[in-house]
Amino acid sequence: MLDGVALTVRDDPEGAASVVADELVAAAQAGHAIALTGGHTPGRAYELAAEREPDWSAASVWWGDERCVPPDDERSNFGLARTTLLDRLEAIPREVQRIRGEIGPEEAAREYDELLRRISLDFVLLGIGPDGHAASLFPEQPTLEERERRAIPAEAKLEPLVDRVTLTVPMLCSAPAVVFLVTGEEKADAVERAFGGSPDPSAPASLIRSTSGRTLVVADAAAARQLSS
Questions:
Q1: CA dist., res. 202 & res. 144, Å (int)
Q2: pTM for the whole thing?
Q3: N or C, which end of the chain is more exposed by having fewer CB within 10 Å?
Q4: Where is pLDDT greater, at 228 or 133?
Q5: Cα 194 from Cα 205, distance rounded (Å)
Q6: How far is CA 181 from the centre of its chain?
Q7: Is the peptide bond before 160 cis (omega within 30 degrees of 0)?
């Protein structure tokens, strides 16, 4: 346990993905509102989750952030989840609410903010960038200070350099289960800054902790090498 954050370390990315897949399966079986993440890391966890539980009909699926690209663009977070998870299910979630990034960051954020007003997220899955960002909340940006809205536009500070829509810090923290999945030696410094010290806007992931439940970090040995459990 690291200052209220539970740490699970596996030898390799496959082991870490397996742990997260089990977390996703449990959330889907419980009929939870699940916020998925994008990037390259979660794809294997999504594949395993679909194999282990092909019926997600009780759950609803949301996203923590999205790039402002069409849903069939290779950079789309929704597109990743569709090919690795949703298209592999026998029974799809009762509700799939993607962020419509293709309509532009301002309008997409306004639309998603309205949708989020009628639900409470139960489970949030996040990754961490090498700069310590989570969702599309980047270091030292004004987006970290937003406390009223649930979803807001964001400017990308890492590739791909396209406009984003992201959930805000309070919205992400509102879920009873917040799970981070992080793998690779190139993430080790970011992991240490996010979970080995005090909250710091230079590492936005350090600001995201469940306010009503548990925060779990699932990492492979390479990513966790600077942490002690």
A1: 10
A2: 0.96
A3: N
A4: 133
A5: 5
A6: 8
A7: yes
Residue 36 above 90 pLDDT?
Answer: yes
How far is CA 22 from its chain centroid? 16
* All domains in the chain, ordered by first residue: 5-220 (3.40.50.1360)
Mean pLDDT calculated for residue range 79-89: 98
Helix, strand, coil percentages, rounded to 5, for the chain: 35, 20, 45
State how far the Cα of 182 lies from the Cα of 199, in Å rounded to an integer. Answer: 18
CB of 180 within 8 A of CB of 216?
Answer: yes
Q: CA-to-CA distance for 221 and 10, rounded, in angstroms?
A: 6
Is residue 53 classed as helix, strand or coil in its secondary structure?
coil
Give the model's pLDDT for residue 158.
Answer: 83
